[in-house]
Model the fold of this input.
Amino acid sequence: MPEGDTLRRTAAGLRPHLVGRTVTAARARVPGPQAHRLVGATVTAVEAYGKHLLIRFDSGLELRSHLGMHGSWHRYAPGELWRRPVARARFVMDVPGAVIVCFDAPVLELFETRAEPVHPVLAHLGPDVLAETFEPDDVTEARRRLRASAAARRSIAEGLLDQRALAGIGNVYKSEVLFIERVDPFTSVDTLDDATLDALILTGRRLMRANLGVADRRTTNGDRTAGGQRLWVYGRASRPCRRCGTPIEVRRHGELPRSTYRCARCQVVGLVGPVADEASTMAAQHRRPGE
Done:
């Protein structure tokens, strides 16, 4: 599923071809948004918030998309051959000089921009981890939301995916951030201290912002122990940990089962008892100076 950095890059790619241009034609698959209402309107903004792409118009309308697992936005020159079958197009919008197509998105919604503060989804999103300004108050609010009510009893892996706590982090960054901060993914949120939660939030922001300008995500940041590879643990089940050599584990869990990757030797924060003591000793033996 596209994560916040992907949506930011998508918005940046569409913005120069949409903002300030008037819609000359629009159509959507039925059931779907009433695309004809956009004809004659001028695009005023293309923004991303978490995993949502928002296109705003001077008519007061706004188009929201959530791409799910397989959705994507494409831009074509008029008459250019599309890279996906026409049957997979959910929404098509023509503006002078460009044709904008949304393929395979499970969520496309047209509503009035003034309704954003009470929107059933947008109004409840947590702080956007990729916001241009991300103040200490945003970290505090994200931490508060992680700890709120039943959420605190879930694993931290599930908590980081909760867009109502922190908007933008998805499955890849979840696993990578937890590995970098040496936190066991299956530890419940309420057993972690504030410093650990803050570190997870800020590391997530750092990694995602570092990847805004690139197509291939990298979380290793040139770390020599990673051997020039892009990711620490995600997608590496049964392969050796890049730090200690222990086989990487993968487990599907949560209400909507998602795969979480971890190194049982390196990720010891949150573990308790004799197993934690042994794992912590092993991790320390493989820890690089200064870590």
Observations:
- The chain has two domains: 4-124, 136-285.
- Residues 4-124 form a domain with the N-terminal domain of MutM-like DNA repair proteins fold (CATH 3.20.190.10).
- The first strand starts at residue 25 and ends at 28.
- Residues 75 and 100 are 5 Å apart (CA to CA).
